[in-house]
Amino acid sequence: xxxFIENLPKAELHLHIEGSxxxxxxxxxxxRNNINIPYKSVEEVEKAYQFNCLxxxxxxxxxxxHVLVTQQxxxxxxxxxxxxxxxxxxxxxxxMFDPQTHTNRGVSFETVIxxxxxxxxxxxxxxxxxxxxxxxxxxxxxEEEAFKTLNDxxxxxxxxxxxxxxxxxxxxxxxxxxxxYAACVEEGYIPMAHxxxxxxxEYVWEAIDVLGIKRIDHGNNALxxxxxxxxxxNRDLALTVCPxxxxxxxxxxxxxxxxxxKMMELxxxxxxxxxxxxxxxxxxxxxYIEIQKALQLTKEDIYQLAKNSFQYSLLxxxxxxxxxxxxxxxxxxxxxxxxxx
Length: 341
Ligand code: ADE
Ligand code: ZN
Fold this sequence. Notes:
Elements: H1 2-7, E1 10-16, H2 23-32, H3 42-48, H4 54-64, H5 71-87, E2 90-97, H6 99-103, H7 109-127, E3 130-138, H8 143-153, E4 162-166, H9 178-186, E5 190-191, E6 193-195, H10 201-209, E7 215-218, H11 226-234, E8 238-241, H12 243-248, H13 260-266, E9 269-272, H14 284-295, H15 299-311, H16 317-336
Parallel strand pairs: 1-2, 2-3, 3-4, 4-5, 6-7, 7-8, 8-9
Bound molecules: adenine and zinc ion.
Residues 14, 16, 166, 194, 217, 275 line the site of zinc ion (ZN).
């Protein structure tokens, strides 16, 4: 089963590029930029990565992002993630980035987007991985600040496909960003948002009704409301689920109690993702492998999850079909050969 998962063609749809900053790369970039970090060794960093809730994690995540200053830093961060994608047979990645984490420290929007998008271009050419960028607003900041970020992004519109909403959920409901999301849609960005990670099902309702999102990041707490589940199915919205993140942030107490299988049985379209792999103990394949073991998922279940990852991506239909064909070929070949994975 492990080899089946490792070789499975898949897409990652929920990944924060800042959350892929591994301690070793953080040290390297910090040294280069002459920036002090409050850790002496990789072991010390790993010890600090113990969280009780989302906010515990965010405090450390924003602090670590301070090492990122130059275009080269953003390039290396992104290319490093995409090299890991190649190893894991991630064929397509939809990458979130948080411009405000950087522009609020004086790093220009241009520096961030240029470094990230150059790495994406190189990854397409050298690693044959396709990418899409999602610009995410920090929800603990004001709507006015989100408008400023939207304006900053307009010269680079061709490089960005969608917008997202992340950071501290409770107390910052989707409706706070109603106007800026309407403006984003006017500009042609596809609306997405984190909802129902720590926030209640009400936050998910707002995200779909007020912001009109096309995909739900996390969405765990949607299960609190039967009518909401029906509505999500009717609108054919997928949930980007992040099992190891849910454990690390105490959204779920034990992988054995993770609602992923229940979601699938209810008819919800779900995908498996790593969220912030450098912080939550595992990349996308580890997420697949651990959740498969915990919930006794079958090969058919795993195949369905990978299928969803392409089907509910933001790729155009021709590219979706290309990857779905690749996946189907892989699945039928492993069945035909009856390989003992
Ligand atoms: N930013 C990075 N990871 C996040 C998560 N899991 N939830 C909210 N904001 C985030
Ligand atoms: Zn996330």
